[in-house]
Specification:
Layout lengths: L17 E10 L3 H12 L4 E5 L15 E2 L10 H11 L6 H21 L24 E2 L6 H9 L2 H4 L2 E5 L1 E9 L2 E9 L5 E11 L27 H8 L4 E2 L8 E3 L8 H7 L2 E4 L13 H12 L5 E4 L5 H15 L3 H7 L9 E5 L12 E2 L12 E3 L10 H16 L11 H16 L6 H15 L6 H19 L6 H26 L19 H4 L1 E7 L5 E7 L18 E5 L38 H10 L5 H8 L4 H14 L4 H7 L6 H14 L7 H11 L4 H13 L5 H5 L7 H13 L3 H6 L6 H11 L15 H12 L5 H14 L3 H10 L5 H11 L4 H11 L5 H13 L4 H10 L5 H10 L1
Parallel strand pairs: 1-2, 1-8, 2-5, 8-15
Antiparallel strand pairs: 3-4, 6-7, 7-8, 9-14, 9-16, 10-13, 11-12, 12-13, 16-17, 17-18
Length: about 900
C-alpha cells in the first residue's frame, strides 16, 4: 500500500508553467521591495511583487524597528558629515555616490513614511527627537510605534489605486533571474504551497531579497536561530551572480555583538541613548572606535578573549523608568522571547549586567559592505537588473537606505515595458532542474542535515580570523558539497523551498571564501582579519574587490580602484583609474600533518533527540467576524465598517478597529476616537493604539478633537494618555484643555499632560506641577522644559519661553530626588544657564549623586566660560566616568577658551574610552 510518505512526488512539466507578465518585477516583499513596488506603480508601471512568504509579514522589517540608525535630519546632521562618517567606518572602500543618496534623500523618505503613517519620535514642539549614539553626528531617530512599520507599508500596497497596478504573488519563490540580449527579462521560480513552476516576463527586475543571514551557524547550532532574519538565505546574492551581475565586498562580513547564548542584539542603538553601555568585567568602557564597524568589533572581540573579559551590557545603573522603557522595547519589537530567556536565568536588568558575545558571520550590504554592486540609481552591472536593501552594496545603509534605494530602483525601472520575446529555454530548464531535483530523489539526505554540515564548514574555515590555509580547506569542502547539495531529497513544496535555499547558501559560502582568499590584507577590523596578512595594504588594496560569473561558469575577480570622493575625508585620497583583472582565485596547497601509522579512534558522537509540540486553542469565529474580515479585503468605506463598531461581540468591535487602522477610510479618525469610550477595555486599548499609530496621517478635524476630548473624560488611563498624546501631536488642544490633566490619577496621563503643555508653550503651568508625587513626572517636566530653548548662552528677554522654562527648572533644582535634580541641571544646558544658576551648577559638581554631577556639568556647557571652564576642568578628576564624559562634552562647547583646550588635551589620556574619544574629537 502506498502512503503520502512513500508515494514519489510528481515533478510538474516545464511546459505546464504558469506564465505572468509585467513591466517591473520586484523580487522580495520586505523593506526595499515594498518601496520599489509602490514607487514603480506611482510612476505608471504594471508591477508584480513576488514574495516566497507573505508580504504582510515578510522580511526583516516584519517584527518592526526600534528606530532609524541613519536619519540625516536638517539642523541635526549634515549629509556630507554622514558620508564622511560612513567612509571612515568602511576604511575608505566606498562608492560615495551611493552613500550620498541615502544622506541626501533619507529625510524626504522619513517624511514620506510619516505620510504613510509611520511614527517617529518628536519632542513637545514637534521637532524630531534625534539622539546621539556615535561620538560624532546625531543620526538615531526612535520610532515609538516601530513594531507596526510593515503593517503600515502593507496598508499602502492595498490602497485601491495601488492594487490596480501592483499584483502581489505570495508564496512564489524565484530561483533565477532570466536574461536575454544582455539584459534582465524576467525570472523563474515556483509556488511554495502548490509546487507549480512559475515564469515571469518583465521589462526590468528589482532584487530586494535581503541579506544572507543564514551563512554561519549560530553557537546554539539551531539553523534558524540567526542574528539576521533566517529566511534571508542569500537568494538575491546567488540570483544576481548567476545572472552575470558583479558582486562586491563579499569578503567584508557582517558580525554583531549579541547576548551570549541568546542570538539577539545587544542593542547599542536602543540601550545607549537611554544611558546603557558596554563594559568589561572591571566595569570599564573599552571601545575606542566611534561606529559599529569592523574595527569596533575587533576591539570587542579582543576584550572578550582577554583577561578583562567577559564583556557585559550594563543597564543596572539606570533608573527604573529607563529600565522599564528598555524592557518594553527589547522584549517586544527586538525579540519577544528575550524576556523569557532572562527570566529563565534569573536575570534582571536592574540587578544583573548581561553577558555579551559575538554573532555568527553573514553577508549584508546594509550593515557592513557585502552585496551586489549598484550605482546611485540602484542599477547593477546587468542592464535592467536592479538591487536594493541589504542585498545591495551600499555600506551601512540600514532601513532608511533600503527605502531610499527601493525608491530609486522603482523610479528608474518604471521606464521599461514588459519583455515580449521568447524566454530563454536553457535558463528555464536550469531553473526547473534546480527546483525539482529533490523530488527526483525523495529519500535523499534531508535539507537540515546538509545545511548544518555546510554551515559548520563556514564556521570552521571561513569565519575570522581568516587564513589562506583555512579558506583553501573551505573551498575544497564547498566543492565536495556540490554533490551532497544535489542529492538532497524533498517530498513537499515547502521542502523544495528549503533545498533551494541551501543552494543559495552554498553559492554565498563559496563567494565569501574566494573573496577572502583574494584580498591579501587585513581590513575592516574583525570583518576581514587575515592572520597571514595582518596589515592593511592601501598601496595594493585600496580597491573594491568585485566578483562575477564568467561565460565559462568560473568565478572571477577584478580589483576596482576607489573612485575620487565627493566629500573629502582625511586619511584617504582615492584617485580612481583602471581596474585590474585577477581572474580566478584558486585554493592554496595545504600541507597535511604527515603520514600516520594508525588512524586515531574517535568516540561515536551522541545525538540527543528533541521533540516539540505546538498547540493552539481557538474558538470558532462568528459569522459576523468572518464577514468583517472578508470586507477588509475590499478596501471598505467607513459606512461599511461602522455597524461592526457597534456589534454586541467585543471581538468583532476590536477587529473593526483593526480594519479601520489597516484601511484608513475618510472619517476613520473620529470613528476610532469614538471607540475610546467602548465598554470593553480591549477595544478601548486597540483604539488608543490605533490613533497613536495613525497620528501622522489623520486630518486635524473638529470631530476628532471632540472624540478625543470625550476620551479624556473617561475612566480608562490608557485612553486618557493616548487622547492627550494625539491632541498634542495634531495641535488640537490648548493649555486650558491640557491643564486639567496635571492632577490626573494616572502617572502616564500626567506625563502626557506635561508634554502637551510644553507643546503650547504653557511652561508657567508646569511650575505648579513641580511637586508632583511621581519622580517620573517631575523628570519629564525637567526634560521637556529643556526643549524650550533659544540658543545656549543667548540673552533673552524676560518672559520669553527659555526664561519661563528656567524659572520652572529652578524649582526642580531643589527637588529631594537626585534624578530630578540631575534632569533639571541637564535641561539648563538647552535653555541657557545664566550666572545665578551657573553658580548653583558649580556647587552641584560636589553632589553625592553622580547623576547630579553629570547634569550640572551639562548645565555649565551653556554658562559663561569664565565661571564654567575652571569648574569643568576640576570635574575631569571625578571618580565617575559619566561625570567626566559630561565635563568633556561641556568643555567642547567652550573649546575657544585656552584653558578649556588644555583640559581637553589632558582628558585624551583618560582611562575611559568615551572620555578619551570625545576629548580628542573636540580638539
Amino acid at each position: 500500500m502506498t502512503t503520502p510518505e512513500t508515494t514519489p512526488p510528481v515533478v510538474p512539466a516545464l511546459a505546464d508553467a504558469e506564465e505572468l507578465a509585467c513591466d517591473v518585477l520586484v523580487i522580495g516583499g520586505g523593506t526595499a521591495g515594498t518601496m520599489a513596488a509602490l514607487t514603480a506603480a506611482e510612476h505608471g508601471a504594471r508591477v508584480i511583487l513576488l514574495e516566497k512568504a507573505h508580504v504582510r509579514h515578510s522580511g526583516a522589517l516584519a517584527m518592526g524597528m526600534d528606530g532609524v540608525n541613519n536619519a540625516v535630519v536638517p539642523g541635526r546632521a549634515e549629509p556630507d558629515d554622514y558620508v564622511a562618517e560612513i567612509t571612515r567606518a568602511n576604511d575608505g572602500i566606498v562608492d560615495q555616490s551611493t552613500v550620498r543618496q541615502t544622506a541626501t534623500r533619507g529625510f524626504a523618505m522619513v517624511r514620506r513614511l510619516e505620510a504613510y503613517g509611520v511614527k517617529f519620535e518628536k519632542d513637545e514642539h514637534g521637532e524630531y527627537a534625534v539622539r546621539q549614539v556615535h561620538r560624532s553626528g546625531s543620526y538615531v531617530l526612535p520610532m515609538p510605534e516601530g513594531k507596526d512599520v510593515k503593517k503600515v507599508l502593507y496598508r499602502q500596497l492595498r490602497r485601491r489605486e495601488m492594487r490596480e497596478r501592483i499584483r502581489i504573488e505570495n508564496r512564489v519563490m524565484p530561483v533565477r533571474v532570466l536574461t536575454a540580449h544582455g539584459r534582465a527579462v524576467g525570472a523563474a521560480g515556483f509556488n511554495t504551497r502548490t509546487g507549480r513552476f512559475v515564469t515571469v516576463r518583465a521589462g526590468a527586475v528589482i532584487l530586494a531579497t535581503g541579506a544572507c543571514g543564514r551563512l554561519g551557524l549560530p553557537a546554539s547550532g539551531y539553523l534558524y536561530g540567526t542574528y539576521e532574519n533566517p529566511t534571508n538565505a542569500g537568494d538575491g546574492y546567488a540570483m544576481a551572480y548567476h545572472a552575470g551581475a558583479e558582486l562586491t565586498g563579499i569578503e567584508c562580513f557582517q558580525i554583531n555583538p549579541l547576548i551570549k547564548d541568546y542570538n539577539g542584539p545587544a542593542c547599542a542603538y536602543v540601550a545607549n541613548p537611554f544611558g546603557g553601555y558596554q563594559v568589561n568585567r572591571h566595569g570599564e568602557r573599552f571601545v575606542d572606535s566611534d561606529y559599529w564597524s569592523g574595527q569596533m568589533m575587533a576591539e570587542f572581540a579582543a576584550e572578550v578573549t582577554s583577561d578583562r573579559g567577559p564583556v557585559y551590557l550594563k543597564l543596572s545603573h539606570l533608573p527604573e523608568e529607563s529600565v522599564a522603557a528598555l524592557e518594553s522595547i527589547l522584549h517586544s519589537t527586538e525579540r519577544p522571547t528575550r524576556g523569557t530567556f532572562h527570566s529563565g536565568r534569573g536575570h534582571d536588568y536592574r540587578t544583573h549586567d548581561i553577558e555579551m558575545h559575538i554573532s555568527e558571520i553573514g553577508l549584508c550590504g546594509g550593515h557592513s559592505a557585502s552585496g551586489v554592486r549598484v550605482d546611485e540609481h540602484a542599477r547593477t552591472t546587468v542592464p535592467r537588473l536592479y538591487a536594493a536593501g541589504d542585498l545591495a552594496c551600499v555600506p551601512h545603509n540600514y532601513m532608511i537606505g533600503a527605502f531610499v534605494f527601493g525608491d530609486l530602483a522603482g523610479a528608474d525601472a518604471a521606464q521599461y515595458t514588459s519583455y515580449e520575446g521568447e524566454l530563454p529555454a536553457d535558463q528555464l530548464r536550469e531553473a526547473h532542474e534546480l527546483v525539482y531535483r529533490p523530488y527526483r530523489n525523495p529519500d535523499g539526505p534531508p535539507q537540515p542535515q546538509v545545511e548544518y554540515k555546510l554551515r559548520r564548514f563556514v564556521n570552521d574555515y571561513v569565519a575570522p580570523p581568516k587564513s589562506g590555509a583555512r579558506l583553501s580547506l573551505a573551498l575544497e569542502a564547498f566543492e565536495r558539497m556540490r554533490a551532497e547539495v544535489a542529492a538532497m531529497g524533498a517530498r513537499t513544496p515547502h521542502e523544495l523551498m528549503r533545498c533551494a535555499e541551501v543552494t543559495f547558501i552554498r553559492d554565498c559560502a563559496e563567494m565569501a571564501a574566494r573573496s577572502s582568499l583574494a584580498r591579501t590584507e587585513s581590513r575592516w577590523g574583525l570583518y576581514h582579519d587575515r592572520i597571514d596578512h595582518p596589515e592593511r595594504d592601501d598601496t595594493s588594496w585600496f580597491h573594491h574587490l568585485d566578483l562575477y560569473k564568467s561565460p565559462s561558469g568560473a568565478m572571477e575577480f577584478t580589483a576596482r580602484p576607489v573612485a575620487p570622493y565627493l566629500v573629502p575625508v582625511e586619511g584617504f585620497d582615492p584617485v580612481g583609474g583602471p581596474s585590474r583583472s585577477l581572474g580566478e582565485v584558486h585554493a592554496e596547497q595545504v600541507a597535511t600533518a604527515g603520514a600516520r601509522e594508525a588512524a586515531p579512534v574517535a568516540p561515536s558522537p551522541l545525538h540527543a533527540a528533541a521533540t516539540r509540540r505546538d498547540t493552539e486553542a481557538s474558538a470558532p469565529a462568528s459569522p459576523r467576524l468572518l464577514r468583517l474580515l472578508a470586507l477588509a479585503e475590499e478596501e471598505p468605506e467607513l459606512a461599511s465598517v461602522q455597524p461592526y463598531l457597534a456589534d454586541a461581540d467585543p471581538v468583532v468591535r476590536r477587529t473593526a478597529v483593526t480594519v479601520l487602522t489597516e484601511t484608513v477610510p475618510p472619517g476613520a479618525g473620529p470613528a476610532l476616537a469614538g471607540a475610546l469610550v467602548d465598554v470593553d477595555p480591549s477595544v478601548r486599548e486597540a483604539a488608543a493604539n490605533s490613533l497613536r499609530e495613525l497620528v501622522e496621517t489623520l486630518p486635524a478635524e473638529r470631530a476628532l478633537r471632540e472624540g478625543l476630548t470625550a476620551g479624556l473624560a473617561g475612566d480608562d488611563p490608557v485612553v486618557r494618555a493616548a487622547a492627550l498624546d494625539v491632541l498634542r501631536a495634531l495641535r488640537l488642544g490648548d493649555a486650558d484643555l491640557f491643564r486639567a490633566s496635571l492632577s490626573d490619577s494616572g502617572i502616564a496621563v500626567r506625563i502626557e499632560a506635561v508634554r502637551a503643555l510644553v507643546s503650547v508653550d504653557a511652561t508657567a503651568d508646569l511650575a505648579r506641577a513641580a511637586a508632583d508625587p511621581s519622580r517620573e513626572v517631575r523628570v519629564t517636566i525637567a526634560r521637556s522644559l529643556g526643549t524650550a530653548s533659544g540658543r545656549p548662552g543667548d540673552t533673552v528677554p524676560s518672559g520669553s519661553r527659555p526664561d519661563t522654562a528656567r524659572a520652572a527648572l529652578t524649582v526642580l533644582l531643589d527637588d529631594p530626588d537626585a534624578l530630578v535634580r540631575a534632569a533639571a541641571y541637564e535641561a539648563l544646558g538647552g535653555t541657557g544657564c545664566p550666572a545665578p544658576l551657573a553658580t548653583r551648577a558649580v556647587a552641584a559638581l560636589s553632589d553625592p549623586a553622580w547623576q547630579v554631577r553629570a547634569g550640572s556639568a551639562t548645565a555649565l556647557s551653556a554658562a559663561d566660560p569664565a565661571l564654567a571652564v575652571p569648574a569643568l576642568a576640576k570635574a575631569l578628576a571625578d571618580p565617575n566616568a559619566d561625570v567626566r564624559k559630561a565635563a568633556v562634552l561641556a568643555l567642547a562647547r567652550h573649546r575657544a577658551d585656552g584653558e578649556a583646550r588644555a583640559a581637553l588635551s589632558l582628558a585624551t589620556a583618560d582611562t575611559d574610552a568615551d572620555v578619551r574619544a570625545y576629548a580628542a574629537r573636540a580638539l
